[in-house]
Design goal:
With 415 residues, the protein is mainly alpha-helical. The protein has a single domain, classed as Up-down Bundle (Amino acid/polyamine transporter I). It is built from 16 helices and no strands.
């Protein structure tokens, strides 16, 4: 995997990891550990394992063909392009709102400021504007460089907090409790929301393919399938490992203590940073506060770029016209405005906003997983470019897994 051209390939996998390690890890994984101890680790491991093929296929398809998954959907059937556009339009405002809302809470905590309810919109407005300007001016080049810096700091600080927590041990001795006592009908919606973004929404697999193509354009080096997939897997499994770190942090510092995390963005950010700092040592406050904000900032930038880039691409594919340079800026603007308006609606319902965003992602996951599977095992790729039989079987198992839980969520929520 680590060839002499590794650093020319390095980028899309790190970008994926930085985008993934946001709400699903910092918010949902920490809450899972805090409320259920280690009872949900199996669900987290399953989500990572069964989603892995769909994400890997995005990188594989781009490296093999030089085209994005979105172009592949069009080749399968133009109807799939319209379906993907619909999925993007349904999810992009909620998802961007959710990650920016969380990031705003961590920004206020980091700066030690309190915003009056009348001006609640200011931190989110600042973050939307920053992300927009960052991407509008720098496009992929600045995104690639910035995420590598953010990702490095995020990795170091998260592992430092995890190591300190392990050294100090749990606040309350962890006593084994049967999973049936912790996982009940009331907890199913949270479990499904947890897996919806663990490690990320499957529709973001198209972003991997687009980022792989952009990285090739940036460096002028076309990586082999093995190099591109190896780089992606490094980012993916780093993200998966860190999800378990956050579960441990939540379990060690909150589970069984009688304390809980507040249901608002600032309260959650303040609660989690103060909790970590109090239990790990006050000297760790800058580390925890900085890690929380940089994690969410990287997610904000990556998610906004992913949705704008993928939506601009699918529209150009549907119209059978070259992608306009202004299209990317148009979708960036629309996403920022739409996400900001969604926050205005869900300002008092932090958990509800997170739940809606993650649930939408989970419901569309089987559709994207099936499309990605069809692309990889169709005639578009040569036999030598396709993954081994084990990955094929894992992909089919993943489709069954995602479909089963999506149907379960529909049953629990609406029937």
């Amino acid at each position: 995997m680590f060839t002499k051209n590794f650093f020319k390939t390095l980028g899309p996998g790190i970008l994926f990891a930085s985008t993934a390690i946001g709400v699903s890890h910092l918010v949902q994984s920490t809450r899972a550990g805090a409320e259920y101890g280690f009872a949900l680790i199996g669900f987290i491991l399953a989500a990572n394992l069964f989603k892995w093929p769909s994400f890997e296929f995005g990188t594989r398809y781009a490296a093999a063909t030089g085209r994005s998954l979105i172009d592949g959907y069009q080749k399968l059937n133009p109807v799939y392009s319209f379906l993907y556009l619909l999925i993007n339009l349904l999810s992009m405002f909620f998802v961007n709102a959710a990650v920016t809302f969380v990031a705003a809470g961590f920004l206020q905590n980091l700066l030690g400021i309190s915003i009056a309810p009348t001006y609640y919109y200011l931190p989110t407005l600042v973050l939307f504007l920053f992300s927009f300007v960052f991407l509008a001016l720098g496009r992929y080049s600045l995104l690639d460089s910035g995420i590598k810096v953010i990702g490095t700091f995020m990795l170091v600080t998260t592992l430092a907090a995890f190591a300190i927590a392990l050294f100090n041990g749990p606040e309350v001795p962890l006593v084994y409790q049967p999973i049936r006592q912790l996982v009940t009908a009331k907890s199913i919606p949270f479990i499904i929301a947890l897996m919806g973004w663990m490690p990320s929404a499957i529709d973001s697999s198209t972003w991997n393919s687009l980022w792989t193509i952009e990285r090739t354009r940036q460096t002028g080096y076309k990586p082999s399938i093995r190099e591109a997939v190896g780089e992606f897997n490094l980012g993916f499994w780093t993200s998966a490992t860190l999800s378990l770190c956050f579960v441990v942090l939540g379990a060690f510092l909150l589970f069984g203590t009688g304390n809980s995390l507040p249901d608002n963005n600032v309260g959650f950010a303040t609660g989690i940073v103060n909790l970590y700092a109090t239990n790990l040592g006050k000297w760790t406050f800058p580390i925890i506060a900085g890690a929380g904000f940089t994690i969410m900032l990287g997610t904000c930038i990556g998610v906004m770029d992913g949705y704008a880039r993928s939506t601009a691409r699918v529209v150009s594919v549907i119209r059978s016209r070259p992608e306009s340079k202004r299209a990317y800026l148009f979708w960036l603007s629309l996403i920022a405005v739409g996400g900001f308006l969604v926050i205005g609606v869900f300002f008092q319902s932090f958990n509800q906003l997170i739940g809606i965003a993650t649930t939408i992602s989970f419901l569309v996951a089987p559709i994207i997983a099936i499309l990605n599977y069809r692309l990889i095992f169709s005639t578009h790729l040569e036999e030598s470019q396709k993954p081994k039989a084990l990955m094929k079987w894992l992909a089919m198992a993943g489709i069954a897994f995602l479909t089963l839980f999506s149907l379960g969520m529909i049953y629990v929520s609406w029937l």
